[in-house]
Structures are given as structure tokens and as C-alpha cells.
Design a protein that fits this description.
CATH superfamily of the largest domain: Ribonuclease H-like superfamily/Ribonuclease H
CATH class of the largest domain: Alpha Beta
Shape: elongated
CATH topology of the largest domain: Nucleotidyltransferase, domain 5
Number of domains: 3
């Protein structure tokens, strides 16, 4: 039911409700309105008891939009500079990133727009970036299935809690070159990034069996300019499951 047809239906039923001779008739009419419209019973009672208030001037209703196209354009520049990450990941870095871009003359915004961009919440930032995000195809789906094995055994810490700056701790993950289908065998790239120095090592592997991925990790270890101290892997949980099942 559209909004205009709902208003017309409510006007007819409101008159019937006010002219109903008994409480039982009003109760029956109320049940009918709830069944037809699907609205809550309390909302139906309010709709039948009083007519809607007329707006003095026509308009879209609700609060006026505070963030205009200038804020959206500036937010898009920040989003592009940050590698098009999600709005909730981008939100904590908006003040610093905005200051750097303004300082380097990569972005020029009026003081009012800068103030609005700094105080925009994460949901507001997501709404502002929605038109820009719609211009790009969605990113590829993950090939790693989450599981509860490591979650119950190893404490999880976020990047904000990392205080060990020694080189040798690597973040590794597999990137599948499978196109739009994950059927059959295909090539993977093991991507290893040192957290402290951002040193990157890449190693190709045919499939993602444990022995092949383990060999790729060993090849990366041999090429590192520093000793390997630790690995943080999204695919390690599968290895743990296989070892326990064996």
C-alpha cells in the first residue's frame, strides 16, 4: 500500500470508526485496519482517533540535511587516498588524513566543510560515500571460512594494541587467482608483510594444501632479510583443524 492510498484508506476508516455505534464495532474495525495495513495496533488506534496534522508548507519532512555535496566530495577524496577502505575503518583516521591532505595542498575545503567532515559519525560517513562506492564493482569474496577453533584458544587483539615493533613478525594470507569460480585447482599467491618494516614477500603456490603452503612459507623465510619471529595467518585455522583430525 502506497502512502497516498494509505491516507485515503485511513480517511475512510476514520469516519467509520468515529460513527461506530458500539465498542465492539470499533474493535472489529480496528482489527480490520491492522490486518489490511500491517501497522502496529497502537499506530492504528492513533490513526483512527485523530486526523493527521497538515504541514503549513510542503516539504520532504524530517530534519534538514546537515551534510551537503561539498562534504561528500571531500569525504570521497579521503576515501580514495585511504585505498577505498570501509567507512567504519576510515572514520578514526579522518582528522589526521584530512590535515595531511590539506597541508600538502591535495585538498582544499572551506572551514565549515572541514568542521563538518571532522565531526561526521561513521554511519554518516558511510552514507556520504555511498554514491562513490556504487561506481566501483564489489571486491572479491573471501575464500577462508571462519571457525571457532582459534577464537577459544588464542586471545584476539586488534592493531591498536600492537606494541612489538621488532622486525620478523609477519602477517600472511593467501590470494586466490580463481576468477568467478572456486572449482578445481588454481594458483594462489602467499602474501607476507612484515608488520614493523612493511617488507613484502610474495610466493606462488599451486593449491592451498598444507604441505604446499608450508613450503611457500619456508621459501619466504629463507628470503627474509631478518629472522622470522612469528606469523599471523588467516588460513592457519584450517591447518589446525586438519592436524587434529589426522
Amino acid at each position: 500500500m502506497t502512502r497516498s492510498s494509505l491516507r485515503e484508506y485511513a480517511a475512510v476508516q476514520r469516519l467509520r470508526y468515529q460513527q461506530a455505534p458500539s465498542r465492539a464495532e470499533k474493535h472489529r474495525l480496528l482489527d480490520e485496519v491492522v490486518a489490511v495495513t500491517g501497522i502496529h495496533r497502537k499506530a492504528a488506534i492513533r490513526m483512527l482517533r485523530r486526523a493527521p496534522r497538515l504541514r503549513p508548507t510542503p516539504g520532504p519532512g524530517g530534519r534538514p540535511r546537515e551534510y551537503g555535496p561539498e562534504v561528500a566530495a571531500a569525504a570521497t577524496v579521503l576515501w580514495e587516498a585511504a585505498g577505498r577502505i570501509g567507512a567504519h575503518r576510515l572514520h578514526p583516521f579522518v582528522p589526521e588524513l584530512l590535515a595531511r591532505l590539506v597541508q600538502c595542498d591535495e585538498l582544499t575545503v572551506p572551514p565549515a566543510v572541514e568542521k563538518q567532515l571532522r565531526r561526521a559519525s561513521a554511519p554518516t560517513l558511510k552514507r556520504l560515500l555511498a554514491p562513490a562506492r556504487a561506481q566501483y564493482p564489489p571486491r572479491g569474496a573471501t575464500l577462508t571460512h571462519p571457525g571457532p577453533v582459534l577464537k577459544h584458544e588464542i586471545p584476539i587483539r586488534t592493531f591498536t594494541e600492537w606494541d612489538d615493533v621488532r622486525p620478523g613478525f609477519l602477517e600472511i594470507d593467501l590470494v586466490g587467482h580463481c576468477g568467478s569460480s572456486v572449482e578445481g585447482f588454481f594458483l594462489y599467491t602467499l602474501c607476507a608483510v612484515d608488520i614493523a618494516t612493511a617488507w613484502i614477500e610474495l610466493e606462488a603456490t599451486w593449491g592451498k594444501y598444507q604441505d604446499r603452503v608450508g613450503g611457500a612459507v619456508d621459501h619466504v623465510r629463507r628470503r627474509l632479510p631478518m629472522p622470522l619471529r612469528g606469523l599471523d595467518s588467516a588460513c592457519y585455522e584450517r591447518f589446525v583443524k586438519r592436524e587434529r583430525a589426522a
